[in-house]
Design a protein that fits this description.
43% helix, binds 3-methylbut-3-enyl trihydrogen diphosphate, six-stranded parallel β-sheet, globular, Undecaprenyl pyrophosphate synthetase, binds magnesium ion, 6 strands, alpha/beta
């Protein structure tokens, strides 16, 4: 019996190196990365089994980058989410954002909220963008919410207060050859199957995704059992 794949998460890495190898600015790599986001999201929306696609787009540590790159990423994000609305509606994609959105500009926050509201009835796929997201930060905010609600700590209670509506991730893919989590979904990845590829994110294709999924399907997931 093959493993069901309901929640796929991706650490979209390697945009900068993709650009550098072509003698381009890093920002060109981010621009090319947007095309991959579209391609992979639409593929997942067509797959009847995949319900959720969580994409790591900006970490709580990415503010350390040069201001020019951070500003560019914020601009690109605003533009992307706004432009994407028609496609979300066309392909039945529900949009969500996780992470601490409070440091973003009101304009960006409005764009995210309006898009979430517009697409909330769509059912083919939920695309979750992780923005100013850190796994540790998410857990701290969840603990705070759990305490504010006066609840006894438990895995169930804490899980409920996390940003992610579906907590368990079935498969995590990281592109670009790095083999680390970089503070992504620490709680939700406890029993996730991991896959790493050398391919830079802008070069990542649906064919490669399919190959990784087919491999995942045949793995023996034990969850601590035998
Ligand atoms: C991933 O690509 C995109 C973001 C983190 C926003 P990088 O920008 O990290 O690309 P590399 O790792 O420097 O090649
Ligand atoms: C992780 O990639 C964050 C995103 C993909 C958004 P990084 O490129 O920031 O991670 P490190 O610094 O290589 O660990
Ligand atoms: Mg990187």
């Amino acid at each position: 019996m093959s493993n069901p794949l309901r929640h796929l998460a991706i650490i979209m890495d390697g945009n900068g190196r993709w650009a550098k190898e072509r003698g381009l600015r890093r920002t060109k790599g981010h621009e090319a990365g947007v095309e991959s986001v579209r391609r992979i999201t639409e593929y997942c929306a067509e797959d009847p089994e995949i319900e959720t696609l969580t994409l790591y787009a900006f970490s709580t540590e990415n503010w350390k980058r040069p201001k020019m790159e951070v500003d560019y990423l914020m601009h690109l994000l605003e533009k992307f989410v706004r432009l994407e609305r028609d496609r979300y509606m066309e392909h039945g994609i529900r949009f969500e954002a996780i992470g601490d959105l409070s440091p973003f500009t009101p304009r960006l926050r409005d764009t995210l909220e309006e898009t979430r509201e517009l697409t909330k009835e769509n059912r083919n796929l939920t695309q979750i963008l992780a923005l100013n997201y850190g796994g540790r930060d998410e857990i701290v905010r969840a603990v705070q919410r759990m305490l504010d609600a006066g609840e006894e700590p438990s895995e169930e209670a804490l899980g409920r207060h996390l940003d992610t509506p579906y907590t368990d991730v079935d498969l995590l893919i990281r592109t670009s050859g790095e083999q680390r989590l970089s503070n992504f979904l620490l709680w939700q990845l406890s029993y996730t199957e991991l896959a790493f590829t050398q391919t830079y994110w802008p070069d990542f294709t649906v064919e490669e995704l399919r190959t990784i999924i087919d491999d995942f399907k045949e793995r023996h997931r034990k969850f601590g059992g035998i």
